[in-house]
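Quick one: structure for this chain?
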Amino acid sequence: MVPARGKKFLFIHVMKTGGTSFSDLVRVNFDDDTRYPDACLPPASHLMHRMEAYMYVPRFIADVNKLDEQLHIVRAHIPYAVRSLLKGSYEALTILRQPVERTVSHLKHCRKYHKEHQNMDLETIYEQSWFKATFLQNYQTKIFSMSSEEAMTRSPFPDDSPALPSPEEMKNGSPLSPEALEFTQQNPARFSLELFAPSTGVITIDEQRLQTAKNNLSAIDLVGVSDRYDRFLLELRDRYNWKLQSIPKRNVSTSQSVSPEFRKRIALDNAADMELYEYATSLAP
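Got it. Here's what it folds into:
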């Protein structure tokens, strides 16, 4: 069960772009022991272990390079720059999403799954500085413009939150300070995400960053856009001999209950992502 025998695939899973449904397709086409992170994690793994494997770049690099000859596909919430740190040669795949829709989807995800965001309206969540800088503002441009050094380094967001331990310190049983313990209890989602996610919140987007993102996107072997997800799947079938069970319909209802004024504001805040997405549509099937 190996599409395009001899090829290995790296899927840059940009958050809230449809990559979760893509994982169902991966399971159809690749055996458990040939796909990352499944090859490293038992099905009943604790959520924090799965988050570390899927988001923490040092762990991702170490795992994938150790299992390089075994793996046929690797996927994670990691910046494009990690491609240069992998031993093997990988066909790179990714999907981008219209920035306003991606942001609204992420906000709704926060409200549904994050304890600290329950019962908040979307605009209040949007104004939280760490989440906005890290995941909501020009996030796609940041993921494709980070350097490999930036991807490997944990840089603290410049606010008044207490210093948090590294994943290595957590594994070694280092105790949290009283201030950090209180912070994690009040902000459990931020704590778990900040522990593992690439430090996109410290990046300031400028024209050079945007151009770097475009250059890196042009180096991707197959770029998809969520508005044309069906074409992305058909290209996987035709170019790489992937097996398609079906082509799911895309849910495009994310704009419901979001005011036109708020959508316009998100678009203005994501000017670089808007331009990057237009460029992605020129590359996508």
